[in-house]
Write a structure and sequence with these properties.
Helix content: 25-40%
Bound molecules: adenosine-5'-diphosphate
Number of strands: 14
CATH architecture of the largest domain: 3-Layer(aba) Sandwich
Number of domains: 2
Radius of gyration: 22 Å
């Protein structure tokens, strides 16, 4: 086949590939930056937005395979992925600049919801996405403690300046009240602070806004869903049967507020003794996976009980806790599953349309 014919054949194959973020074909999005074919050698460069960056290696592999499957005439295929600047379109009446808004919830407290919400934000950010973290767990705002950050957010030109952890803007009631102080929330006050956090914080343009929800009740979910279209909820639970029942209630609550379920995460899933490497199922294992399957909800992954994670988090260094290789691998998997799940949902609905409620 002539070089020109081969180039055109490969270009057609690439054009039919879908951009993971928008679900639109690359032929229509202008993301094929270059394609060079010479003596059976192919070099191509495809652009990808930071929203999809956490799975850029999978996408690169997919492009490779597509090119190889298009013709048997290739000796060498080299695919580069470069970053595409695609800012978010403001969403909701408040014009929040975030492409995906993820609520992290649980049926009850103490299951590791805040740990997971914070770890997801750190994981997405580490993987190359622009992330914000909002602590809407106003009854027990623990994110400042987990990250070891403090300070009073300033108000500048009517906007609240969040406190930054690395590149991540963070907003929490924990910055506004003393750690040991109790806040009694009345309905309108709760509604007021949550909307203020969302609307008046200077988040900047984000790929993902991760929101740590209060456990159980639906008030905050309702307030949020009235203000912005949430991409969906991640429900965290532990493997015991009683905990799973609470998780089911949490999912029912999200459904009622028309927030789609992105998936379940099983936390404190088994324990590997660091001395003997022996595995113990302290709270059991696999319960959430089975329940997710039974309910037709995606299962995003599991995090084992990990001493380093608990110790470092207690000392305000959750990031350090995540350096434990077991936690790192587990979180990585969950971040990828989540991004894939968001992409799948986006691909099933016209771009920008409300996502289906599971
Ligand atoms: P929640 O937000 O559901 O109330 P937290 O995230 O505050 O729960 O976690 C409760 C406690 O459990 C914290 O001390 C935290 O460090 C610990 N924890 C969470 N996940 C794990 C885990 N996988 N292994 C060990 N400890 C964990």
């Amino acid at each position: 086949m002539s070089n020109d014919n081969l180039t055109s054949q490969l270009h057609t194959a690439l054009s039919a590939l879908k951009d993971p973020e928008t679900g639109r074909t690359l032929g229509n999005t202008g993301q094929i930056e270059s394609l060079e074919v010479q003596d059976g050698q192919v070099r191509c460069t495809i652009q990808l937005s930071s929203h999809s960056w956490p799975i850029h290696d999978e996408f690169q592999e997919h492009v490779q395979q597509t090119l190889r499957a298009a013709t048997a005439e290739l000796d060498d295929v080299q695919v580069s992925i470069t970053s595409l600047d695609r800012p978010p379109v403001p969403i909701g009446q408040i014009g929040l600049q975030a492409k995906s808004v993820i609520a992290v919830g649980s049926g009850k407290g103490g299951v590791g919801k805040s740990t997971l919400a914070t770890s997801l934000a750190l994981g997405l950010s580490k993987a190359g996405a622009k992330v914000g973290l909002m602590d809407a767990d106003v009854y027990g705002p623990s994110i400042p403690h987990l990250l070891g950050i403090s300070g009073r957010p300033e108000v500048v030109n009517g906007k609240i300046k969040p406190i930054y952890f690395d590149q991540i803007p963070v907003m929490s009631m924990g910055f506004l009240v003393e750690e040991d102080q109790a806040v009694i929330w009345r309905g309108p006050m709760l509604h007021g602070s949550i909307s203020q956090f969302l609307r008046d914080t200077y988040w900047g343009p984000l790929d993902y806004l991760v929101i740590d929800m209060p456990p159980g009740t639906g008030d905050v979910a309702l307030t949020l869903s009235q203000m912005i279209p949430l991409t969906g909820a991640v429900v965290v639970c532990t493997p015991q049967q009683v905990a799973l029942l609470d998780a089911i209630k949490a999912m029912a609550m999200f459904r009622k507020t028309k927030i789609p379920i992105l998936g379940m995460v099983e936390n404190m899933s088994g324990f590997v003794c660091p001395d003997t490497q022996k595995h113990y199922d302290i709270f059991g294992k696999g319960g959430a996976r089975d329940k997710a399957e039974e309910l037709g909800v995606p299962f995003l992954g599991a995090v084992p009980i990990n001493i380093q994670l608990r110790q470092e988090s207690d000392h305000g260094n959750l990031k350090g806790g995540l350096e434990d290789p077991v936690c790192d691998a587990a979180m990585n998997k969950i971040v990828r599953s989540l991004v894939r799940q968001i992409n799948d949902q986006a691909a099933q609905t016209p771009h920008g349309a409300a996502l289906p409620v599971l």
